Write a sequence for this structure.
C-alpha cells in the first residue's frame, strides 16, 4: 500500500496532472454552480477530451470535474435559492435564508468548508477501508435496498414543514411523477399516453429546474410587477473565511455524521448525492435540539447537506473500484472511461493496477484541496452576484437552465417538461405544498418499486425476508419508529395548538 | 393567512380529481405475469394514499372555515396591493416562456433565448428605469455566447434553426 501510495503521489505531482486537476475542478465548479448543468454533464462533455490522453491524466481530469461539479452546486443554492445540481437541493433550505439575512459570506464559507471536510472523510475511508466497505455493499440485495428506500421515505415527514398532510401529499406527487415511463423489471409503459418522449420518464434535472428555477424567476417577475415592491439587491457581510474555524468545528459531530451518511449512500449503487443531501438534512433536523429553526437559516442544515453530498464522491468510487459497480451516473461514465483505457475495475484492480488506483486516490485528495482554494478565492466574487439586480441575473440563469434541460437528452421535449414543472411548482407554492418531499418521493419512489418488484420476483411473491433478514428488519424497525415518533409529535403539536 | 381555508379546499379538491384520473389510468397499464407485484401496484397505492391525504386537507379546510371569522377574510383593499397584478405578471411570464420554447424548437436556440431575455426585461421594467443598453447587450451576447460555447466548445447540439440554414455561420 505504501509503495503504491508513493507511486500515486509521483504520478499526480507533475505539471500535467496538477494543471488538469486545476482546470477540471474550476470547470466542474462552473458546471455545478449553473442550475441545470451538473457534474454528470461536465464529465460527459469532457470525456472525449480524454480519448487522446494517457490513462492517469485522463482519469485525473474526470475525477477533478466530478469533485468540482458536486461542490459548485452550493453557490447558486445559497445565492439565488436555485440548486446548481440535484446534490445541493437541501443546501437551499438553510443556505438561501442565511444569504437573505445578509450572511451570504457565512453561508458560503460554511458550505465550502463542510464540502471539503465531508469530501476528505470519504476519500480517507475510500483509501483505507474501501475493500471492507465494498463487502457491506455486497450484502445488499433487493430486500435490503427496498428497506433502505422505505426508511428514507419515512424521513420525508421531517421535510413536510408545518403541514404534515401537505408534505406527504407532495411526496406522493413525486412518486406519481416517477411512475411515468417504462415500469421497472417488465418495462410496461405507464402514463405515456402514446408519447414516445415520455417512454423514458421525467428526469430529475427537469423537475429541479422547473420547481426551483422557474418558480424563483416567476416570483421575481411578480415582485417587479408591483410598483410598491422595491427590489433591492441583497446586502451581505463578508469577513475572512465567512465562518471561524472554531465555530465550524463546534459542529464536528454533525459534519462527521453527514459525511458518514454521504459515504454510506454513495456506496449503495443507484442513490448518490441527490438522495444523500436530503437524507442527511432530515437526520440533522430530526436529531436537533431546535428542529423548528431548520429552514430559517441554520448552519447545521447547511453543514449536513454539503458535507454529505461531497462525501458521496468517495463513497460512489468504492464499489466502482473494488467491485466494478458504479455508485451513480458519473461513476458509470468514469467506469466507461477506465474500460476504454483497457483497465478492468473490480476486486483484482488493486493487484493488477495498484499504482493507478492510488493515483486516483491522490488525484481526489489534491482536487479536494484545489476545490477549497478555488472556492475560497472565488467566494468574494460569488457573493458579488447578490449585488446584481435580479432583472439581469435571473433571465440569464433561466437560459442556462434551458441549456441544461436540453442537454439531458439532447431534445427540446425536456425544455417543455421544465415549463410544465414550472407551472406545477408555481401552483404548489400557492398551495403552500413544500418541494423537498416531492423531490425525495421522485428519487426514492422508483428505487423502492424496483427493489420491491425484484424481491417479489426472486422470492416468488414471498416478502417474509423483510422480517427474517437482519438488515431489512433493522431498517424497517427504524422506519416504524420514525413514523410513530412523527405521529406522536404531530398529535402533541395539535393539542398544544388547540390548547393555546 | 387570508383565505387559507379556501386555498386548502381548492388544493384538496384538485388533487383528489387529479389522483382519481391517475388511478383510472392505471387500468390501461399492460399487465405481465413476470412479476407477482404488478406494475400497477405502486401507482394504485400512491393514488389511494394521495386521495386519502387530499380528503384530510379538504376536511381540515372545512373545519378551519367554521373557525375563520368574516373579519379575517381578505378585503378588496388588500387585493389592490398587487395580488391581481402579480398573478397577471406570472401568467404572462409563463406565456413568454412558452413562446420562447416554441421559438427555440422552430427558429433555433439563439432566437428563442434572445426573445425570452428581451421579453423578460420588458416585462419586469415597467415600474423601474429602463436601461436599454444593458438589455440590448445581454439580449444579443448571452444567446450567442452560450450557443458558441456549448455548440462549438462542448459539441452540444443546441437547436440551430435559421443559423443551421445559413450553413452554420456560428
Amino acid at each position: 500500500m505504501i509503495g503504491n501510495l508513493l507511486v500515486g503521489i509521483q504520478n499526480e505531482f507533475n505539471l500535467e496532472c496538477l494543471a488538469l486537476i486545476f482546470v477540471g475542478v474550476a470547470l466542474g465548479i462552473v458546471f455545478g454552480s449553473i442550475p441545470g448543468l451538473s457534474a454528470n454533464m461536465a464529465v460527459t462533455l469532457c470525456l472525449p477530451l480524454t480519448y487522446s490522453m494517457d490513462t492517469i491524466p485522463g482519469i485525473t481530469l474526470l475525477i477533478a470535474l466530478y469533485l468540482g461539479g458536486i461542490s459548485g452546486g452550493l453557490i447558486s443554492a445559497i445565492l439565488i435559492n436555485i440548486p446548481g445540481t440535484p446534490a445541493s437541493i437541501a443546501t437551499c433550505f438553510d443556505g438561501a435564508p442565511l444569504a437573505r439575512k445578509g450572511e451570504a459570506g457565512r453561508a458560503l464559507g460554511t458550505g465550502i468548508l463542510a464540502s471539503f471536510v465531508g469530501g476528505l472523510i470519504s476519500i480517507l475511508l475510500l483509501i483505507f477501508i474501501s475493500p471492507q466497505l465494498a463487502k457491506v455493499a455486497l450484502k445488499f440485495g433487493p430486500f435490503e435496498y427496498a428497506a433502505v428506500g422505505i426508511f428514507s421515505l419515512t424521513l420525508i415527514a421531517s421535510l413536510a414543514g408545518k403541514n404534515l398532510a401537505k408534505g406527504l401529499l407532495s411526496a406522493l406527487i413525486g412518486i406519481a411523477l416517477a411512475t411515468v415511463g417504462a415500469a421497472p423489471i417488465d418495462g410496461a409503459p405507464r402514463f405515456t399516453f402514446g408519447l414516445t418522449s415520455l417512454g423514458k420518464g421525467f428526469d430529475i434535472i427537469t423537475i429541479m429546474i422547473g420547481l426551483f428555477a422557474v418558480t424563483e424567476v416567476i416570483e421575481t417577475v411578480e415582485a417587479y410587477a408591483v410598483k410598491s415592491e422595491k427590489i433591492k439587491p441583497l446586502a451581505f457581510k463578508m469577513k475572512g473565511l465567512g465562518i471561524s474555524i472554531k465555530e465550524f468545528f463546534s459542529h464536528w459531530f454533525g459534519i462527521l455524521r453527514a459525511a458518514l451518511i454521504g459515504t454510506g449512500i454513495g456506496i449503495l449503487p443507484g442513490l448518490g448525492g441527490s438522495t444523500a443531501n436530503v437524507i442527511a438534512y432530515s437526520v440533522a433536523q430530526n436529531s436537533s435540539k431546535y428542529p423548528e429553526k431548520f429552514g430559517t437559516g441554520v448552519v447545521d442544515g447547511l453543514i449536513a447537506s454539503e458535507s454529505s453530498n461531497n462525501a458521496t464522491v468517495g463513497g460512489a468510487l468504492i464499489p466502482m473500484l473494488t467491485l466494478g459497480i458504479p455508485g451513480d451516473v458519473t461513476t458509470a461514465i468514469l467506469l466507461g472511461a477506465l474500460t476504454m483505457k483497457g483497465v478492468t475495475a473490480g476486486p483484482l484492480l488493486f493487484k493488477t493496477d495498484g499504482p493507478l488506483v492510488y493515483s486516483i486516490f491522490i488525484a481526489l485528495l489534491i482536487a479536494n484541496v484545489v476545490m477549497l482554494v478555488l472556492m475560497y478565492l472565488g467566494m468574494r466574487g460569488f457573493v458579488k452576484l447578490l449585488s446584481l439586480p435580479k432583472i439581469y441575473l435571473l433571465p440569464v440563469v433561466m437560459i442556462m437552465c434551458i441549456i441544461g434541460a436540453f442537454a439531458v437528452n439532447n431534445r427540446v421535449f425536456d425544455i417543455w417538461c421544465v415549463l410544465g414543472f414550472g407551472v406545477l411548482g408555481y401552483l404548489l407554492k400557492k398551495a403552500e405544498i413544500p418541494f423537498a418531499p416531492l423531490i425525495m418521493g421522485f428519487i426514492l419512489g422508483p428505487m423502492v418499486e424496483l427493489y420491491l418488484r425484484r424481491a417479489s420476483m426472486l422470492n416468488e411473491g414471498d416478502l417474509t425476508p423483510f422480517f427474517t433478514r437482519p438488515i431489512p428488519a433493522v431498517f424497517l424497525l427504524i422506519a416504524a419508529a420514525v413514523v410513530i415518533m412523527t405521529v406522536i409529535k404531530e398529535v402533541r403539536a395539535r393539542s398544544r395548538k388547540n390548547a393555546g | 393567512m387570508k383565505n387559507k381555508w379556501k386555498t386548502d379546499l381548492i388544493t384538496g379538491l384538485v388533487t383528489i380529481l387529479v389522483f382519481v384520473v391517475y388511478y383510472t389510468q392505471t387500468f390501461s397499464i399492460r399487465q405481465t405475469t413476470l412479476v407477482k407485484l404488478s406494475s400497477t401496484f405502486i401507482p394504485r397505492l400512491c393514488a389511494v394514499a394521495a386521495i386519502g391525504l387530499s380528503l384530510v386537507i379538504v376536511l381540515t379546510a372545512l373545519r378551519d372555515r367554521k373557525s375563520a371569522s368574516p373579519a379575517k377574510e381578505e378585503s378588496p383593499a388588500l387585493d389592490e396591493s398587487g395580488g391581481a397584478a402579480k398573478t397577471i405578471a406570472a401568467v404572462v411570464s409563463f406565456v413568454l416562456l412558452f413562446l420562447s420554447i416554441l421559438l427555440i424548437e422552430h427558429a433555433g436556440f439563439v432566437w428563442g433565448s434572445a426573445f425570452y431575455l428581451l421579453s423578460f426585461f420588458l416585462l419586469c421594467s415597467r415600474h423601474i428605469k429602463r436601461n436599454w443598453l444593458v438589455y440590448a447587450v445581454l439580449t444579443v451576447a448571452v444567446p450567442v455566447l452560450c450557443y458558441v460555447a456549448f455548440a462549438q466548445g462542448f459539441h452540444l447540439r443546441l437547436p440551430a434553426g435559421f443559423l443551421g440554414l445559413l450553413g452554420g455561420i456560428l
